[in-house]
Design a protein that fits this description.
globular; single chain; 5 strands; 8 helices
Length: 145
């Protein structure tokens, strides 16, 4: 398995272990992880701390060119908020663990020329299916239903 997707999965597992939602993300620049994170809405009481947003926050201030040369890996298809951040920072490629349990704003990313690679990774699908089954209220809160 791709070590960067594995790092995102490890982040998702950490989020679940903390009592949160199992979605993880890493940002890679020139073959190095510069930011990693996981959904911490529950842990931090935050409305915006999704996995991709946490990874961006943990990457810290970077020159714009760094983001324009980076790839973001996420275990789940990015929601509209995270899609907006990807577009804002000009990240040209997103590697998505799966989009079966949730289809985010992939069409918007494609419309803006962002390259998408959807893996349909069984580990990512399993994490989310189990979580949704066990915590439907929390999942519906997170996706705005």
């Amino acid at each position: 398995m791709d070590p960067f997707m594995q790092a995102a999965i490890d982040e998702a597992a950490q989020g679940l272990a903390e009592g949160g939602i199992p979605i993880g993300s890493v940002i890679v620049h020139n073959g190095q992880i510069i930011g990693r994170g996981h959904n911490r809405r529950v842990q931090q009481g935050s409305p915006t701390l999704h996995g991709e947003m946490d990874a961006l926050e943990n990457a810290g201030r970077q020159p714009a060119r760094v983001y324009r040369e980076s790839v973001i890996y996420t275990t789940l298809s990015p929601c509209s908020m995270c899609t907006g951040a990807i577009l804002l920072y000009g990240i040209p490629k997103v590697v998505i663990g799966e989009n079966q349990t949730f289809m985010g704003s992939e069409s918007l990313l494609r419309e803006h020329g962002v390259e998408l690679e959807v893996l349909q990774n069984e580990q990512c699908i399993g994490l989310m299916r189990q979580f949704i089954e066990q915590s439907p209220e929390l999942w519906n809160e997170d996706i705005g239903e």
